[in-house]
Design goal:
Largest sheet: 5 strands, antiparallel
Number of strands: 5
Distance between the termini: 59 Å
Order of helices and strands: HHEEHEEEHH
Helix content: 40-55%
Shape: elongated
Number of helices: 5
Strand order of the largest sheet: 2-1-5-4-3
Oligomer: single chain
Strand content: 15-25%
Amino acid sequence: MSDKRRERRILLQVFAVTLLAVLLVFFLAEKIVYDGQRSRVQTMVTTYARQIEQTGDYELRRLQIVTDMVRTDPQDLSWFARAAGEMQNQPDVLSLQIWRNDRLAAGQSVDHLVAPAQWQQLLNDGAGTAMQSGEAVFYGPIQLADGSLGILGIQGIYGYDAKSSVFTPWGISVLLLREDAFLRHVDFGALKLAGV
């Protein structure tokens, strides 16, 4: 009997070790597959983030051009109507504006695009952030009146005060974009295909 018990114990030990080995191999295989999928997803997300960043940089250059033009001669905004008209002929631009002292200094009202109270709140928040950081900021998505979404870019404009030899806040330049056009170069559908 003791030989049979010993054989059973050995068989149970062999079975337990085999089972543990199979579970370990299964776990390692799953981890390798998971790590591979995670790596592919991270690569895709990084690629899309770069594409969004490049699109944002392009749009920021538009704001920078407007800001630089205002800095050149803050008293003369006669050029603005033509510049805004050219930009608004592009499919992604809904509005281009210049604001000074909480008033629209140049550009057209967007009351037909965004609820006035929402627009004023976005401008207040964005102007404060843009002026404090010294950088252009994007807000969005913004619900537009037609049910679509938009992206708002705001950049602070500083003027040079010759008397005190410092740059002082002058106003803000504002760019309202269609979200779908802003993100047109990014294929988010591929994320679903990758299982994200």
